[in-house]
Amino acid sequence: MECPLEWPEPVVPVQSLADAAVIPDRYVKPPSERPGDASKDASVDMIPIVDLGGLTGGAAEREATMREISGACKEWGFFQVVNHGVSPELMRRAREVWREFFHLPPEEKQVFANSPNTFEGYGSRLGIQKGASLDWGDYFFLHLRPESIKNQDKWPALPASLRKITEAYGTEVVKLCGVLMQVLSITLGLDESFLQKAFGEEEAGACMRVNYYPKCPQPDLTLGISSHSDPGGFTILLPDERVQGLQVRKGDAWVTVQSVPHAFIVNLGDQIQVLSNAIYKSVEHRVFVNAAEARISIALFYNPKGDLLVGPAPETVTPDRPPLYKPMTFDKYRLFIRKKGLCGKSQVESLIAM
Ligand code: OGA
Ligand code: NI
Question: Which of 16, 120, 239, 242 is deepest in the core (most CB within 10 A)?
Answer without folding.
Answer: 239
